[in-house]
Amino acid sequence: MKYCRFQVNGEAQYGLVESVAGRDSILRVLLTAPEESDGDVEGLRTRRIEPIALDEAALLPPVRPSKIVCVGRNYREHAAELGHEVPAEPLLFFKPPSSLLGPGGVVRRPKISQHVDYEGELCVVMGKTCYRLANDQDVRPYILGYTCLNDVTARDLQKKDGQWARAKGFDTSCPVGPVVVDGLDSWAGVGVETRVNGAVRQSGNTRDFIFTLDVVIRYISQAMTLLPGDLVATGTPAGVGPLVAGDVMEVSVEGVGTLTNSVVDE
After folding, report:
1. Which pTM does this prediction carry?
2. Residue 237's CB: how many other CB atoms inside 10 A?
3. In what order do the strands lie in the sheet containing 199-205?
4. How many whole angstroms separate alpha carbon 169 and alpha carbon 31?
5. CB of 90 closer than 8 Å to CB of 74
């Protein structure tokens, strides 16, 4: 299963994506939002449309979360490059839904920051209500799919403030997309790569998670209810670095695709 969210005739639609002659295309629109499917997107009613090539569609963020829960320092080398200790348990923070940005959108470096970094990540899209999972409960049935996320961060504000609401939450600081897919196995290993202006800056694999996905989701669920459509950003590999106006960022997740966004000064 692979779906996107796109705009056509001024209206936002969810579309099923399939390969046609080796090119991803939108062939059907979903008549119900995926987050309302109780985890069964394939069972939703659809309507056939004239095919639209995915790379020609006006793509929107493929998600509408009530919250975006992020895991900090979930790769040892990333913690080391920031000069931080490896956390003893998952380190959580939020990005607000107002920070969401779609594929091809422009990240605005805020005037109040002099140092803004990219952070490419694998992101989980929740499919079912999840609260206080037991240690022996499988997290997979609660997952709708996976996508790419760029946790754009005002690093100087993060260091200055101590807590991360401003640094992580400014508008356009959460690019997500281009599609949501199912069937990934982060336990077996999924590659995560970030390129800036074509040069590889981050290259990691989920096999190197400090806290595996089941640990993360169970941990979050002990404190708060994860709702269908909510996002869990799983952490970024080593190699984060600053952005300047004119940069083009590409976050690629193996099995998902590539999320591309450019940068301007506010």
Report:
1. 0.96
2. 27
3. 106-109, 257-265, 248-253, 191-196, 199-205
4. 32
5. yes
Is residue 251 within 8 A of residue 259, CB to CB? The reply is yes
Gap between the Cα atoms of 11 and 1, Å rounded: 23
CB neighbours of 133 closer than 8 A, spacing ≥ 6? 139, 142, 217, 218, 221, 222
Helices (H), 187-252: 213-223
Helix (H) or strand (E) holding 167: helix 165-169
Question: What span, in angstroms and rounded, lies between the C-alpha atoms of 184 and 220?
Answer: 21
Q: Which region holds residue 164: left if phi is over 0, alpha if psi is between -120 and 50, else beta?
A: alpha
Helix %, strand %, coil % of the chain (to 5): 20, 45, 40
Beta bridge partners of 3: 16, 180
Contacting residues for 96 by C-beta, under 8 A, at least 6 apart:
68, 169
Q: Does residue 80 surpass a pLDDT of 90?
A: no
Encoding tokens for residue 59? Answer: 């793509």
**Which residue, 144, 173, 157, 161, is CA-closest to 249?**
173
pLDDT digits (tens, 9 = 90+) for 134-152: 999 999 999 999 999 999 9
SS3 98: helix
How far is the C-alpha of 127 from the C-alpha of 180, rounded, in Å? 12
In the chain, the amino acid numbered 89 is E
In terms of Cα–Cα distance, which of 113, 232, 215 is closest to 164?
113
As given in the structure block, the two tokens for residue 209 are 């998670």
86 has pLDDT over 90: no
Question: Which three-class secondary structure state does DSSP give residue 61?
Answer: coil
pLDDT in tens, 215-263: 999 999 999 999 999 999 999 999 999 999 999 999 999 999 999 999 9
DSSP code of 107? E
